[in-house]
Design a protein that fits this description.
single chain, pyruvate-formate lyase- activating enzyme, 3 domains, nine-stranded mixed beta sheet, four-stranded mixed beta sheet, binds S-adenosylmethionine, binds iron/sulfur cluster
């Protein structure tokens, strides 16, 4: 437990402690005081029956904007706590003192605000934030591969959420209903999506926004039947170069759904194995056969889709050898994009109860094997994010080959573009680039509430864009 006289630091300091180990019996008291721009920080750490006292001080650079000063003070305290815990527990973390979801955005901000030179960003992350060399270099490569970012407040991406799945996988904590439990409401859900879409079209027209990318995610959007899918896709109708449907589960992908997507200008789909080990698939309750993935993939190639495949490192029961086989199968298939996740043991997932069955030892090796092997075969990393409770404090990385990256993924992780979210659980973000400000508005999370409160959702959205 952390106590601090600066309430605004507590969550991130606690996140840092949890990254060392959630179960540590560690109590920390922190007090910050200042005399003009000299800041003094005192820590008392209670661990294994002993109190240890630490103090450090620094001078605040008052030429920074007030917002950056606030962020700088927090970074200094986190850095120091990292040094204390790292030496006390004799442990280093791959991301050093960084706790947030978006390390690449963190690095970009250091550059944009003149706190680090672009060509030195990897060194700054290593030296000032204790980031592992391989992770710092990964950030550097990703920043270089994100040159497609355009900061323009008139550009928006459209996101539509389908939080429904054929069955639930037991590692997953995304909010998503099993089809069997909601079957009688799916038609109504699609009608409500169309109603919200029509209001969004009005907003887009009034604001003279230009839609850059479209992403239909979930859940599993291809759980919709042919009629529902056609009804939704045909209503969207924006001329974009990148239109993704996160199909995901191979057991929902059929020739006719691919045809419907193709006819409605979808350009990119996901077909996610997660692993090619069928024993693991059984263990994680993912109702999917390798043969279904291969069949869906060959149908998608014939239709000319850009294909992404998601995999997860650290699935229960998997050791390095099994994971390597999955990566090697991926390389044989050679999809345009590969997204390598590290298992996150989230509170909502059934897997949480099996925490002790997970073997973390091989996970860093899996993640570095994926990175090295994919890069050796022409893939480049282009977006990265971290989640809470990921094994060994690791991350998720999206890779692409040739020029086929997903700009929506970059926009949503780097928060450089506005996103209009439609559907249950969708979040809309307005990015004001000049003022360096982001506003967010969330729809209700559950389909039943969304259907009941659709008019209220639309009203809220109209006000949000007023
Ligand atoms: C929102 S899910 C939707 C994808 C689709 N429903 C599927 O399962 O193929 C996106 C991706 O998140 C990843 N994911 C889900 N739960 C995860 C977890 N607990 N830890 C790490 N990655 C996870 C999986 O790789 C999944 O493909
Ligand atoms: S991993 Fe995908 S299919 Fe499985 S429950 Fe989560 S969202 Fe649904």
């Amino acid at each position: 437990m952390i106590k601090s006289n600066r309430a605004e630091y507590v969550i991130e300091l606690q996140d840092l402690v949890n990254l060392f180990d959630c179960d540590l019996e560690l109590d920390i008291e922190h007090i910050e005081s200042n005399d003009q721009n000299k800041y003094v920080n005192d820590f008392v750490v209670f661990y294994k029956g002993f109190d240890r006292k630490f103090q450090f001080s620094y001078y605040l650079d008052t030429s920074l904007s007030l917002l950056r000063q606030k962020s700088y003070k927090k970074r200094m305290v986190k850095n120091h706590l990292y040094k204390i815990l790292s030496s006390l527990l004799n442990k280093k973390l791959p991301w050093g003192s960084l706790t947030g979801v978006r390390p690449t955005k963190f690095a970009r901000d250091l550059i944009v605000y003149g706190e680090a030179k672009e060509y030195l960003i990897s060194e700054v992350l290593q030296k000032d934030y204790f980031v592992d060399k391989s992770k710092a270099e990964l950030v550097n490569s990703i920043l270089k591969n994100q040159k497609c970012i355009i900061r323009n407040d008139n550009l928006v991406d459209l996101y539509i959420n389908i939080p429904i799945c054929p069955t639930r996988c037991n590692y997953c904590s995304f909010i998503s209903s099993e089809l069997a439990n909601i079957k009688d409401k799916v038609n109504l859900y699609v009608e409500c999506l169309l109603k919200e879409l029509s209001a969004v079209k009005e907003i887009i027209k009034n604001k003279a926004y230009i839609v850059r990318n479209i992403y239909i995610g979930g859940g599993t959007p291809t759980v919709l039947n042919d009629k529902q899918l056609e009804r939704l896709l045909s209503a969207i109708n924006f001329p974009v170069d990148e239109f993704t449907v996160e199909a995901g589960r191979a057991d929902t992908i059929t020739e006719s759904k691919l045809e419907i997507m193709k006819n409605n200008k979808v350009t990119r789909i996901s077909i996610n194995p997660q692993t090619f080990c069928e024993a693991t698939l059984k263990r994680i309750g993912r109702r999917q056969k390798n043969s279904q993935v291969l069949e869906a993939y060959s149908m998608a190639l014939v239709k000319g889709f850009v294909v992404n495949m998601d995999i997860i490192a650290g699935l229960p029961g998997e050791k390095l050898g099994i994971f390597k086989r999955t990566i090697n199968t991926i390389l044989d298939l050679y999809p345009n994009n590969v997204t390598v996740h590290t298992l996150s043991v989230k509170n909502g997932a059934q897997l949480k109860d099996d925490r002790e069955k997970l073997n973390d030892r091989d996970v860093p090796l899996m993640v570095s094997y994926a990175q090295e092997t994919l890069q050796k075969h022409g893939y480049k990393p282009y977006y990265l994010y971290r989640q809470k409770n990921q094994l060994c404090g690791l991350e998720n990385v999206g890779y692409f080959r040739d020029d086929d990256l997903c700009i929506f993924n970059i926009d949503s992780m780097e928060e450089t573009n506005s996103i209009i979210g439609i559907g249950a659980g969708a979040i809309s973000k307005r990015v004001f680039n000049i003022e360096n400000r982001i506003e967010r508005e969330a729809n209700v999370k559950f389909i039943e509430d969304y259907i009941k409160r659709i008019d209220e959702m639309i009203e809220k959205k109209k006000n949000f864009y007023n």
